[in-house]
Amino acid sequence: MFDGFVRFAPRCDDCGLDYSAFNVGDGPAAFLTLIIGTIIVVLAVWLELAAEPPFWLHIVLWVPLTTLLVFGGLRIAKGWLLIAEYKRGAREHGGRDPGARPSDSDRVDGSK
Ligand SMILES: [Zn+2]
């Protein structure tokens, strides 16, 4: 499903479904930023109050953990959202059925 770490492949290796017909947009990234940000801040505050560790420990702990959660979560969230769009037949404005490739004439709103 993915071509690179968080970018979709042009189409499915198994059935040839055109992934470019779907646009999951920035929704997954926005949700992840809020959710993961909240989790990390709560954990960091809790650790500081419970153990008062040196500042470098916060850096060593939270920076890699945040990076891991954001990128790992982004794959899951984007994949999940594409599946949700596929199941509901959701298309970009003016789109057609899931198997069809959108042509430029479908893009009446001028979006990407
Ligand atoms: Zn497939």
Give an overview in words.
The model has no long low-confidence stretch (mean pLDDT 82). Helix 1 (27-51) runs antiparallel to helix 2 (55-88). The chain has 112 residues and is mainly alpha-helical. The two termini are 21 Å apart. The protein has a domain at 26-91. It has helices spanning 27-51, 55-88. Zinc ion binds next to loops.
Compute the gyration radius: what is it? 19 Å
Instruction: Please give the share of residues in helix.
Output: 40-55%
| Beta-strand residue fraction | under 5%
Q: Poorly predicted ranges (pLDDT <50, ≥5 residues)? A: none
Shape: elongated
Order of helices and strands: HH
Concise synopsis of the structure shown:
The protein is mostly helical. Helices cover 53% and strands 0% of the residues.
Layout: helices, strands, pairs:
Layout: H1 27-51, H2 55-88
Helix pairs in contact: 1-2
The protein binds zinc ion.
Question: Which terms would index this structure?
Answer:
112 residues, mainly alpha, 2 helices, binds zinc ion
